[in-house]
Amino acid sequence: MHADHSTADLTELERRVRFEMECLGYPARQWTVDRNRNGIPVHDVVIVGGGQSGVSIAFRLLRERVSNVRVLDRNPAGREGPWVTFARMHTLRTPKMVTGPDLGIPSLSPRAWWEARFGEQSWQGLNKIPRELWQAYLLWVRKTVGIEVSNDAEVTDIEPLSDSLLAVHANIGGAAQRLLARKVVLATGIEGCGRWAVPAVIAAALPRKCYAHTAERIDFRALAGKMVAVIGAGASAFDNAATALEAGARSVELLVRRRHLPSVNPNRWMEFAGFLRHFGDLDDARKWRFMKIIFDMNQPPPQDTFDRCALHENFSIRLGCPIDHVRFESDKILLGHSKGTQAFDFLIAGTGFVVDLASRPELARFHDQIACWSDRYHPAAGEEHPLLGSYPYLSPNFQFTEKVEGAAPFLAHIFSYTFAAMPSLACSAGISALKFGVDRIAYGITRSLFIEDADLHLQSLRDYNEPELNIGLEQGAALSRTT
User: Fold this and answer.
1) What is the pLDDT of residues 116-143, one digit of tens each?
2) Is the N-terminal amide bond of 27 cis, ω within 30° of 0?
3) pLDDT of residue 477
4) What is the pTM of this model?
5) What is the chain's Cα-based Rg?
6) Distance between CA 412 and CA 279 in Å, rounded?
7) What is the distance between the alpha carbons of residues 289 and 52, in angstroms, rounded to a whole number?
8) Is 62 exposed, middle or buried (0-12, 13-18, 19+ CB in 10 A)?
9) What is the location of CATH 3.50.50.60 in the chain?
10) Which residues lie closer than 8 Å to 330 by C-beta, 6 or more apart?
């Protein structure tokens, strides 16, 4: 447990944050041009997703003096992102020194917040940040810098309009609304360009109450005394297996298609500034080669996650065990594989997600106009990778691009900050690359806003009439005699 210090320390830190932001605030002038369409105000940016990525992008835009921004999140207040919903690890997987949402302001860093709340000694003894406290930190950052999020806001469609604007259709608090925007950012998480995947063989054979994906709400208390199967070998599969064991499951068996668990985590290799900041500047061939290795290596469970399961005698792993068939008989799940048939009471699918633009309601209207990697790059023999080819091919600043040049110019106004950005930019919905990705996407947004309004700014300069030097008549006459 971490004992809270006096709230005075946190209050003083918040004062320090405001001071540092003032020190770094020049130039402070708002510069975007107000727009309306038929009398309806237009947002410069609508951000879909109010978790760590969406709020960090909004904060970065605020520091660039782009404040006409609306942030929408489908979850209730305080439950944005995965950290207190479907994330089931005890702590973050990244080192405690991670930064990102602070945008380089020391007093906004996780360490500054932690020490103000729990003390310096607590920070020194900390290994990794508990996920619930990471959520608390994110909410504190949001409150301190003044980012507002509209909760219970489900985006159902993005409609391109004839004047380069976008209409964002959403149900907000149960009421249908239509928001106008110049730019839209999708900060919709890991599955933001697709959907969580449950193998068809499972979904077709089992009653819905008998299985769940790791990204879904699961009543683990109901699994007490039950025999549970978990399919998959990723970190989330192990997290859910451990949670079921800790809830009193009679047994938990992890069924893994691979013959060996991966032992090397390519994500740790990626964590250096050169790669995370400049991967997006590489040519397509080298991007492809990097990503093919990373995708093929896969990601092992962290050691502490593996150990969390291994502590339990009623936990087991079957490697090299793909599921051949699934049946449901006499209230039991029967899983057939190369080593026989086993009976279970409940099944958890740790089977990740698939890129499927058509399945996203906000993209469904124009999903077939978005370029994927398979449309833009054809790898050499031996370097093929169908999964990589299905990912959207993004611009250097996270914009969707056109499958057919000139057919869908509105795509340049839609930015995808999701895991689907990985092959194009190596920045995704995670924490480690956040500060690099946020810089890229903010640059793309502000660049586009300024260039689109360049003629208006030019006219503003011509009309500018605010002299800094006020010379009286006598001073003017004296100056003219000396020249």
Assistant:
1) 999 999 999 999 999 999 999 999 999 9
2) yes
3) 62
4) 0.95
5) 26
6) 21
7) 29
8) middle
9) 7-193+355-456, 198-263+300-351
10) none
